[in-house]
Amino acid sequence: MPHARSGERREARKAVAEAERASTEARKLSKTLSRDARASLEALTATARADVRTARKELRDHPRRATRTARRAAARLESASLRVTASGDARRKAAADSDAKQRAKTIKHRRVQAKQVRKMARSAAFRTIVSSIIVPTDREQAEADLKRFEQLGDRVAKYARR
To answer: Cβ(113)–Cβ(31) under 8 Å?
Structure first.
């Protein structure tokens, strides 16, 4: 159908661009996840990425089909990221369902959230290691307290002799 209206083609290009943006964000998200979660996300998004490529090829001849395919692929990518990261913010999900452009943003938000979780885990492990090195054991603390008590007693005795 080479005589498709330019408005349909414009809308199709926009839908494909948004789906590609969602695909890029999903790829970035998969890099931040653990090995198991990454494999799960890549399995879920493989067909969606293929649909985005198909929509790109159909842009010129079948713009309506390309629009529909691209939007479906973007929705599939967004739901896959939701399943993998398990962050179900209802407001963002409602916004993503209503606006295709929001889908890439919600995937990006989930990627940032996954990164924050990893940073928190890393910092908690670091704090645990530091505290195990710096904080004295009960025996060491008792010896230090005894030493301090003896020094205090020596000072008191010195002033008492005056």
So the answer is: no
pLDDT tens, position by position, 14-48: 999 988 888 888 888 888 878 888 888 888 888 88
Number of helices (H) and strands (E) in the chain: give both, helices first: 6, 0
pTM for the full predicted model: 0.54
Q: What DSSP line would sit under 53-119, residue for residue?
A: HHHHHHTTT-HHHHHHHHHHHHHHHHHHHHHHH----HHHHHHHHH-HHHHHHHHHHHHHHHHHHHH
How many whole angstroms separate alpha carbon 12 and alpha carbon 83?
Answer: 27
CA distances from 129 to 35, 115, 141 (A): 25, 21, 19
**Position of tokens 């799960």?**
40
Helix (H, G, I), strand (E, B) or coil at 1: coil
